[in-house]
């Protein structure tokens, strides 16, 4: 039984590695993890973000891939003057990759994506006692949909894809590192 599992895993890996080329009409899917480092005012409000995503890619030409991505990111809690703040978002992203390599094999690429972040931001304040005035603890949660632009660069080798992109939206900026495993359909 162990030998059969080993053979099946080997076949899947070889098939995915040998077919992980860009090209017209080729499709692939995968899953990955994301680390989001908040920048500007967003970095003052929340900590580092961790997330996961699923992706789909379709080759329009040998150099261009259309991409679609659905995921979830959660930013860790950050405390400032006893006020705690955290956030999470469902992400829906579409865009494209342009192969910068001289050949049609995977390699360096530029990417440009646009997306919607369905963002939930939570702020908690502690109770304050000023002698004759007592202010109770409170919690506030806001939800919004943010349209973001994501320019970046990446490198695909075999079935692994690593990219760095910057999420642009006013004060909601993140530097994101994505690592994904991509398999052909």
What does this structure look like?
With 185 residues, the chain is mainly beta. The protein is built from 2 helices and 10 strands, in the order H-E-H-E-E-E-E-E-E-E-E-E. It has helices at residues 2-18, 40-45, and strands at residues 27-39, 49-59, 64-80, 83-99, 108-125, 128-129, 134-135, 138-157, 160-167, 173-184. It has an 8-stranded antiparallel beta barrel with strand order 1-2-3-4-5-8-9-10. The relative contact order is 0.21.
Estimate the mean pLDDT confidence. 85
The gross shape turns out to be elongated
Radius of gyration: 21 Å
The main pleated sheet reads as: 8 strands, antiparallel, barrel
| Distinct helical segment count | 2
Order of helices and strands: HEHEEEEEEEEE
Q: Provide the spatial order of strands within the biggest beta sheet.
A: 1-2-3-4-5-8-9-10
Strand elements, count:
10
Based on helices, strands and strand pairing, what is the structural class? Answer: mainly beta
Q: Report the span from N to C terminus.
A: 27 Å
* Low-pLDDT sequence parts: 3-20
Tell me what portion of residues adopts beta-strand conformation: over 45%
**Helix fraction?**
10-25%
């Amino acid at each position: 039984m162990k030998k059969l599992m080993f053979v099946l895993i080997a076949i899947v890996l070889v098939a995915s590695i040998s077919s992980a080329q860009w090209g017209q009409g080729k499709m692939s899917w995968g899953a990955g993890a994301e680390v989001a480092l908040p920048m500007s005012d967003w970095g003052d409000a929340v900590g580092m973000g961790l997330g996961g995503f699923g992706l789909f890619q379709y080759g329009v030409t040998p150099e261009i891939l259309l991409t679609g991505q659905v995921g979830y990111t959660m930013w860790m809690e950050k405390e400032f003057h006893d006020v705690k703040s955290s956030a999470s978002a469902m992400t829906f992203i579409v865009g494209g990759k342009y192969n910068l390599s001289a050949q049609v094999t995977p390699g360096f690429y530029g990417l440009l994506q646009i997306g919607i972040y369905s963002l939930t931001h939570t702020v908690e304040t502690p109770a304050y006692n000023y002698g004759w005035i007592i202010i109770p603890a409170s919690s506030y949660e806001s939800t919004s949909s943010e349209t973001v632009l994501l320019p970046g660069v990446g490198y695909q080798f075999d079935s692994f894809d690593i990219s760095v992109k910057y999420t642009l939206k006013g004060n909601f900026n993140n530097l994101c590192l994505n690592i994904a495993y991509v398999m052909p359909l």
